[in-house]
Each structure stands twice: as C-alpha cells, then as structure tokens.
Amino acid sequence: MDVFAIFSARIAQAMQSLFPEAGADLLARIVVEPPRDPAHGDLSTNAAMLVAKPLGKNPREIAGALVEHFRNDPDVTSVEIAGPGFINFRLANPLWHQVLRSIGEQGAAFGRSSLGGGEAVNIEYVSANPTGPMHVGHTRGAVFGDTLAELMSYSGYEVTREYYINDAGSQIDTLARSTFLRYREALGETIEIPPGFYPGDYLIPVGQALKDEFGDSLLGKPDEEVTPLVKERVLAAMLELIKADLAKLNIHHDVFFSERTLHGQGGDIESTLAWLRDKGMIYEGRLEPPKGKTPDEWEDREQTLFRATDFGDDVDRPLVKSDGSYTYFAADIAYHRNKYLRGFKHMINVLGADHSGYVKRLQAATKAVSLNEADMDVRICQLVRLLKNGEPFKMSKRSGDLVTLADVVEEVGADATRFMLMYRRNDAAMDFDFALVKEQTKDNPVFYVQYAHARAYSIFKTAARDLPELDVSPEALRAADVSLLQSAAELDLVRVLAAWPRTVTAAAIAHEPHRIAFYVHELSAAFHGFWAKGKDDPSLRFVNAEDPKLTLARLALVDAVRQVIVNGLGILGVSAPEELS
RNA sequence: GGUCUCGUAGCUCAGCUGGAUAGAGCACCGGAUUCCUAAUCCGGGGGUCAUGGGUUCGAAUCCCGUCGAGAUCACCA
Asked: Distance between CA atoms of A19 and A566, rounded to whole angstroms?
C-alpha cells in the first residue's frame, strides 16, 4: 500500500472530472509528495499551479474546487490551500493504521511493485579485464550494479546481471606469456618478468597447474600451439579468481559473456557489420585528429567508420584497426546487438569514471543496432580514494601495486563495504576511510542501521520477559488493534514507513540505489528517536506490562519497522543481524 | 582545445528528476543513563547552494557564459 500513489491517482481523477479540458499529459505531471515541512501536512500537490496557466485560470480557483472535492472525504481530515497554490492534505489516523496493517500483511513484499511490468532489463556491471584479481577501483561499480539489479528486480523488472569478459585483446596474449613464465618458474627456472608483463603473484598457481597438467612438455613446442592452450587455462583461472572475489561481496552474475565468441568467421561481429553496412551506417572515410591534442603517431588514412554521429556521438568511430582486426568498439556494437536480439529493450551499463568518454558511443551503438527501439542508460561510478585516518592508503598483497577488493573486504567486512559505497551518489567521487568504516559507533551509518534492527529484536525479548503470556506470533501481530496507536510519535513513525514504497519506486525510476541506503538510515533515526521518547515518557514505551493490548499494537509497529529495514537492507545486500556483538 | 561528471554549513554528504523558511551526520557548545541495549536520544550556533545571466507563477535543481576540481580524447581494452 502506497498512500502517495493512491492519492496521486485520486487527485488526478478528481482533476479529470473537474477540469476535463486539461489533457492527460498535463495531469500526468501532477506531483503528490510529502511536503518538506511536516507542518504543512501529510501530503501536498502542485496540481492547481500546474494546470492554472494552460487553462487560463487562477490557481486558487482550481485549488478551491479540488479542496471542495476532498472536503468530505473520510480519509482526509483537512485540505487547505497554501502559499502560491499548493494544496495540503492531512490524512486521517485510520489511514495510517491501514498502512501499518498492510505492512504486516505484505511483509517482505511491502515496497515491491510492478513498476517494471516484467520487462527485461540487462544490467552489465564489473566487466573487469580478466587479467588478475579485482581491485578497489572495480568494487564501487560492482556494488552499485548489484544493488541496482536488486532494486530493479524488486520493482518488477526481469533482471539479467551480465559480465562482459574482455578476453579477445592483445592484453590476453600478454597474460598468456606472463603465465608461461610462471610455468617455467614452476619447472625450476629462475625467471625475470619484463616490463609490460603481469607481475602479480596470482599467476604462480596457474603456472604450477600447467606444470601439473603438462609436465615440461610445453617447453619445446611452437608458440602457435602453446599460446592457445595457456590462454584457455589462464582465462578460466582468472575468471574463477574474479568470481571468488565477487562472491566475497555476495555478488553473482547470471551471464558471463565472452568477447571472443563474437569474433571469427560467421561470428556476431561479421554479421553485425554486414547488417550495419546494409543499413548504410558504415562508410569508408577519414577522421580529423582531435583538436588541441594531436597524438604523436597520427596516421591519416582512410578507414572503416560507423556513423555514430547519426546517433548522437561526437565523431564517427573506427571499426577496423590498421592491422585489419576489429576494434574493441566493433565487438561492442556486435555485443549490444546480441543483447538486443536476446530480447533486451532496456539496458544499463555500469562503468568506471575512466570510461566516461565511452558513454555516447555506447548509446549510439545501442540506438543503431535496435533501430532506436532500445534504451541504454550508462551509470558512471566515480573514483574511490582510499584513506586510513585521513592519509592516502596503499596496501598491496597480491596484485603488484593495487589494493584489491579482497583486501578491502578482509579489512572492513562485506556489510560495511557495501553500505558505505551505497551511502553516496555514484557520480560523485568519494573517500573511503578504513578507520571510519570499521568504527562501530553512530558515526558509522552501517552500524546505526543494524543497531536499529537489533533493537527491534531486543524489544521483543523484553516483551517476552515482561509479558510472558502475550502471544506475539506473526498471526497475533497481524490481529493487533493498531488503532490504539494515536500519539503523534507513533503516527510519525508510521508516516516514515509509509514512504518506503514511494522511495523504492523513485529510486528504481532514477536508477539511483543510494536512495535506499539513505531511506533506511532515516527510518532508523526515526525509530531510535521514538525509542528514546520512552525514556522521558514511560507511557510511550513499547512494552507496558499493564496494557497487553497496547503493547501488542506497539509490537506490531516495531515489527513493521523491523520488516522495512530488512526489506531495505535486502536490496542493499547487507545483513540484518538480530543482535550486535 | 573537445567531451563527460562534479562544486551545497568548518569537514563528509543528502536534497524525492522545477515547489513553500535549503537538510542530516561529524566537529563545536549545552543537556538526558536507578528506566525496553547511551552502539542511543534532545537542544543550540553555523549558508551569497562556486559565480554572472536566462527560462517562469517559482530555480540548489533546467539552459548559456565564467571560474575551480576530476576523468577522458582515432588505430588500447
């Protein structure tokens, strides 16, 4: 039950019947939201101001008609016109009680919606090069993508979580060569790792495994025979490494899509380029060097170009390298056509800030291959600066000079990592201070929220102690007489709970999962605040041994808070412990 | 030089895709603990929303310019 959605519909309907001359487009823009200042009421609409000008009427005249319409509505205790033409509603207590009951009935489903209507969304995230373990730079995108996927799924989309494996480039040849060195090392040779090779220790076990599998039989063989063999082994090993890293944050993809499968005769790149050519989206031409920064080895030559500018990109993009092989972008076009042909009309890609220059061409590619049928939202995750007590922080165990994802999780734990990364907009750079994240105080929003959840459990324990006869089973809580909750403090808490479905929907539409983290924090604050009121005013305590019926009603409220925190933390992928140790 | 982000309290950040007197945490000051977990709560001071224009009933939010920070710039991935 979403009171805002309900009233949004009712207000739109009222406007429709009162002012039929206002078009549907106009009415769709009506906003119903809680006013910033609670003194203004429970919800507020701009309907009158919005419609006034197009209809050539006075806002207050329109507002007056709407006020009249709702004057005798039993769900509304007051409607008034305020400011330049806002209409403020105050809702009747029974409606809030109804919200509370619906949370009890819906439980984990409270906040779920059919916003997405079961439509398929492909969310591609992480897609780190399979050349080593995940480092911190990937962590933010990984958590963001995973949380967004959960949010979209929660909001009624059919979500596919996808990882694009960049396993076709020359870096993979380098990786294979680096691995071969480790193989020779495993056979007893003293090796030296040349610059440009991958120096990380994580290749040592792969070399060892090659030795175990082949003995020294690879040494004498020609490169053309050995390289594909090594490549296959090391790619598989790296992918396992990455999956294991992601699993540490409880991140699991549905599809791992290999770039290599797009290449080759009869592959998707060939067929896609043929298709594009057929549509006239490819031509042979020359590019201007970028202004202000001419690359040293600029080679002015005619090349095969994709008409990206026709789809909003800044320049047309090359598809074939000077050596005749396909560019990365050519493969990416084919990949996104593949996605489209698999049935995805909604695609979201999560990229790091270092790929922000890639956004336009990705969107251009998506439009082109779908003939403008599909939409592509690219979410950029800005960089994370690691700090410890305010000082830049370096920690390297496995991957040369980079802090790995595994390091971070080991240091602060998966819950804190996930929550802290989501407690910030994705498009703003952030500092991640280990000392702060590990601190278990109110400065740390993770523990603040988890403590609120644990506190709900604690209240139930107290109830069991003080009122051992009281039945607090889920059935009993659902049957509680919540209309006994009449104090402002109680109803204010319900108001916060009532905002949950609206918060989820707005976050899903905007693709902004950080709003979930902020909401959960806000709800926790409201709950802690109410709890503390019981200190000054014992009549507001949850557990009152003299009044089992009231206690039961309040426990239903506590349980609703607990449930919504669970739902929110569930989207965030953060655990909700029953007690903090 | 082009493009893309960002600029909000001393610090870290929200601001519900244009709404009413711009919010929270930290820090600072002052309170609350024989009482459901003080891992918490209550109160106070603190702002030219970088800046200058524009759009309109109304702008932190949208558009243009300027300043500043970061990222990126054919044939890497």
From this structure: 43
